[in-house]
Amino acid sequence: MQNPLRAVTVFGATLALAGLGIAAPALAATSGPPSVLHMGQIGRQDVQSHGNCEPDTLVEPDIAVSPFNTKIEVAVAHDCRFATGGAVDIFYAWTHDGGAHWHQSRLPGLTRAVGGTYDRASDPVVAFGADGSVYVSSLVFDVTCPTAVAVSRSTDGGATFGLPVLAQHSNTCAVSDDKNWLVTDTQPNSPFYGRIYQFWTEFLANGTSPQVVRWSDNEGKTWSGTHVVDPKDFAQNSQPFVQPGGAITDTYLFAGHALGNGTRQGFILPAGTGTAAGSGVSIVARTSFDGGATWTKPAVVATNIGGGPAGIRCCLPMMSGDHVTGRMFQVWNANGPGTQDAVLVSRSADGQHWTSPVQVTPGHNPDIQYINAAVAVAAGRVFVSYGRRDLNKPNFIQQELTWSDNGGATFAPPIALGPPSNLKYAAVAGGKFPGDYTGLSATPARTAGAWCVSSKPPSPTAAFHQTLYAATLHT
After folding, report:
1. Which of 291-295's residues contact partners 24+ apart within 8 Å by CB, and which partners?
2. All residues at 6 or more sequence positions from 279 whose CB lies less than 8 Å from its CB, including other chains
3. What is the pLDDT at residue 102?
4. How far apart are CA 203 and CA 198, in angstroms?
5. How far is it, in rounded angstroms, from Cα 150 to Cα 356?
6. Do residues 234 and 256 touch, judged by C-beta distance below 8 A?
7. CATH assignment of 35-474, among 2.120.10.10, 2.60.40.420, 2.40.40.10, 3.90.1200.10
């Protein structure tokens, strides 16, 4: 039966949306700053605290806006974070009225705390499929091993999720899965239309850590075998994008040396240093024209990638693209020297040729630092969000959003989103920990961002209070 949340998958056309009856607008040129429609706290820890997890913490969010009904948004995050890695479960929240009202719950069947078989869950990613379903990818693992990558599906716009399907699981401690990312093919002209791609990092006993992919052509019920992007890679952090014709480009971090197993911590750029892991960490891109089976030679996107400010664990590079034009945009933190590591962006029309970096963040103030840049693109507009830290008030992080109307050549002065986050009450995991990434999603009508805000706990004896905020903007 056809999903009631989707009728026609044609970007830029008016979509008849049975069930909720919302019509998506046609593509149009946009000017002026985006206006905030709704903004505020959308969730707080939903699962019961377990073991030594840090109570009252939501960490590392992602968010997606439905391209078929922009009133529907879904956000995900770690639910009660462990300092040694992972969380008790994965939190999710959904809205069906464009962010005016949010509802929250927890994903069923992932961990033992919610009827599953694994100790912990981590690294949630959310995306809408071509059928209008919502897919959430999560890393699940036991405290020692094994590990797995699970995909949960919702057919009612994120209100409820079924039990997860394991897209990948490791039966041996010699193979450890990490840093999963999921993307869907919603391109009507693609020969792989409807396919779900599940990427992750596979840490192997020989010291390599290639980026690998599996895919599903039946809404996540079954999955292909594992295909390796490059078996010799020392890599991490896939950021895939499906181009209009169905080619898929994956950008990821690459080093000429082993990066170490990040399964428990989920990052490769060490927190507390403000520098990259060694001197040779780059972002590279590969493209597949046959649905993920084979990949082109790597193209260098950027070199000397930064890991964010000292004392804060954060700042994995992110990439996204415009579903109509196919143009891709990669953002990352610069890497010194000095304390002011700007957010940079590079652009590509094909995934194989990338421009020189452009600075996104304004000025060169040595007292200002940035964390967790995210990027989203729609209708020719490029949006970048990030956290801004003033070293004169080092405990506070202000979420900001900027945009470009000229294809990423220049960016407008940013707007502030929500209250500042006080790191004094943040989760801790190898540094103060809002997450290795934050979420940003764009459609021609709506842009939505999700980030964590830590603040003074309601209880005077509590050490943590980190909640999830979201903003919905008219774009």
Report:
1. 291/191, 291/192, 291/195, 291/215, 291/246, 291/248, 292/197, 292/213, 292/215, 292/224, 292/227, 292/248, 293/227, 294/227, 295/229, 295/230, 295/250
2. 304
3. 98
4. 16
5. 37
6. yes
7. 2.120.10.10
In contact, 125 and 76? CB cutoff 8 Å: yes
The reported pLDDT for the residue numbered 207 is 85
Spatial distance between the Cα atoms of 178 and 235, rounded to a whole number of angstroms:
11
d(CA 53, CA 69): 36
Buried residues in 367-389 as b, exposed as e (16+ CB within 10 A):
ebbbbbbbbbbbbbbbbbbbbbb
Rounded Cα distance, 13 and 25, in Å? 7
Residue 234, H or E segment: strand 234-242
Phi-psi region of 260 (alpha: psi -120 to 50; beta: other; left: phi over 0): left
CA angle 131, 135, 137 (to 5 degrees): 155
Token couple for 421: 């986050």
| Three-class SS state of 53 | coil
CA distance 273 to 458: 32
Distance CA 174, CA 339 (A): 38
Distances (CA, A) of 14 to 1, 21, 24, 449: 22, 12, 5, 24
CA dihedral 358, 362, 364, 365 (to 10 degrees): -150
Among 41, 145, 136, residue whose Cα is nearest residue 92: 136
Question: What does the block give as tokens for 151?
Answer: 């995909």
CB under 8 Å to 461, separation ≥6 — which residues? none
CA distance 414 to 394: 20
Instruction: Classify residue 312 by its DSSP letter.
Output: B
Please, are residues 119 and 143 in contact by the beta-carbon 8 Å criterion? yes
Element (H, E) at 90: strand 87-95
Please, which residues have CB within 8 angstroms of residue 455's CB and are 6 or more apart in sequence?
419, 421, 422, 425, 465, 467
Alpha-carbon distances of 471 from 273, 307, 405, 408, rounded to whole Å: 31, 26, 20, 22
Mean pLDDT by 10 residues, the chain (475 residues): 36 31 38 92 97 97 97 98 97 98 98 97 98 97 92 98 97 91 97 98 90 98 95 91 98 76 40 43 96 97 92 96 97 80 96 97 91 96 97 97 97 97 97 97 97 97 98 94
**Nearest by Cα to 330 from 398, 272, 282:** 282
Q: Residue ranges per domain, the chain? A: 35-474
Phi, then psi, of 423 in degrees rounded to 5: -65, -15
